[in-house]
Each structure stands twice: as structure tokens, then as C-alpha cells.
Amino acid sequence: MKFFIDTANLNDIAEAEALGVLDGVTTNPSLMAKEGITGAENILNHYKKICDLVEGDVSAEVIATDYDGMIKQGEELAALHPQIVVKLPMIADGVKACKYFSDKGIKTNVTLIFSAGQALLAAKAGATYVSPFLGRLDDISTDGLNLISEMRLIYDNYGFTSKILAASVRNTMHVINCAKLGSDVMTGPLSSITGLLNHPLTDSGLAKFLEDYKKGN
Ligand code: E4P
Asked: Which atom of ligand 1 is least distant from the CA of 189?
């Protein structure tokens, strides 16, 4: 399973990259705003900085909600850097735009997926990545992981090549469960990746090894 980090914070991206397990980055307008990155030019420059930090795919989201606007913004984003993936919302014009970019060989990420039907539509439009929002479903007492299972079944039934990009991942158990269910990619905050390191038996075991080494030397 690929690990993407879901942030626009350059320090967090660099830390995940330094761990050697990072495969890409996802962002959204809220994450950009959280870092104080505002204005079209600053946002575009920030995407370039992110692309310079990592080797994998970097999702950059369009702001337009009409077909023509999405095509214009998506083309501008795609021209920025070969690593850019055009992120499109799951609305009718987003599906149409996804088909347009797929036909042109430009990578896409269809975002804000909350149902199997939406996931099916995105796959039929040729999306490179389809992003079910796990955490936000959990937030409204709906099992987000069930959507990952449904998507895996549907995509495997028909050999859809779209990658399931489990998004809105909030914690390490989300990551582990996504891996068990066959999600192709997960995207979450730095803590959802570094949290996988933690086990008290690792810490106490290492402390004992070092203590015993010192006794004999
Ligand atoms: C997906 O690409 C989104 O950026 C993201 O995962 C949303 O996560 P949140 O629900 O924690 O805001």
C-alpha cells in the first residue's frame, strides 16, 4: 500500500520523506489555508515546492465547480510539474472533467467520495485515484471502512484500474485497516504514519538490549 501524506506543511512532508516511506502528497484548499498559503500565485508556487520535496504524485485541487473552469485550472496545475495530479470534486462537471483529463493522459484524483455509486462513476470516468473519505464517514457514525471494502469488490469485479486512495485517514488503525482491506493508497497526517512506529515493548526491549550491552563492555 502506498503512503501519501495529507498536508501542505513542508516540514511534515520533509519528515515523512526522510523516513523513506513516502509515496506522494495530497492537499486540499483547507490544508493550504491552514498553512497560510493564499492567493492563486502563492498556491501554485507552494505546489512546486512540494513537488521538489518528494518524488511521487502530488494532488492539487481545482477550485472551480464548472466544467470549463475545472479544465482551465486543471491544465494550469498539470503544466506546473509532471508530478501533479489534478484533484476534482465528485460532482457532474467533475466527472466530465475527469473523463477529459483521463483521455488526455493527465492523472486525476476524484475527491469527496462518500458512496460506492460515486466511486463507480469516478472509475468509469477513468480516474487515476478515487478518494473515499474514511474519517468524515466515521464522524457521522457511518462505517468508512465498509466503503473501502465495497470499492475493492467493485473495482476487482470489473478490473477497473483506478486506485483506491483512502482519504480522511485520521489514525494508525485507519491505516492498518485500509491495508487489510486492500486499499491501494492511504493519505493521512504525519502522525498516522509515525504512529505506526510505536510499541512499548520495542522501547523496553531496546532499553534492555542497551543496558545488557553496557554491562558486558
Ligand atoms: C483528501 O485528499 C483530503 O485532503 C483529506 O484526506 C480530508 O481529510 P479530513 O477529513 O481529515 O479533513
From this structure: 11
Q: Whose CA is nearest to atom 1 of ligand 1?
A: 167
pLDDT per position as a tens digit, 24-67: 999 999 999 999 999 999 999 999 999 999 999 999 999 999 99
Using DSSP, state whether 186 is helix, strand or coil: strand
Q: What is the DSSP string of 57-108?
A: EEEEE----SHHHHHHHHHHHHHH-TTEEEEEESSHHHHHHHHHHHHTT--E
| Residue 188 CA, ligand 1 centroid: distance in Å | 7
Q: What is the pLDDT of residues 159-196, one digit of tens each?
A: 999 999 999 999 999 999 999 999 999 999 999 999 99
Question: Ligand 1 pocket, 6 CB below 6 A?
Answer: yes
48 is catalytic: no
Q: Which helix (H) or strand (E) holds 128?
A: none
How far does residue 167's CA lie from ligand 1's centre (Å)? 6
pTM of the model: 0.96
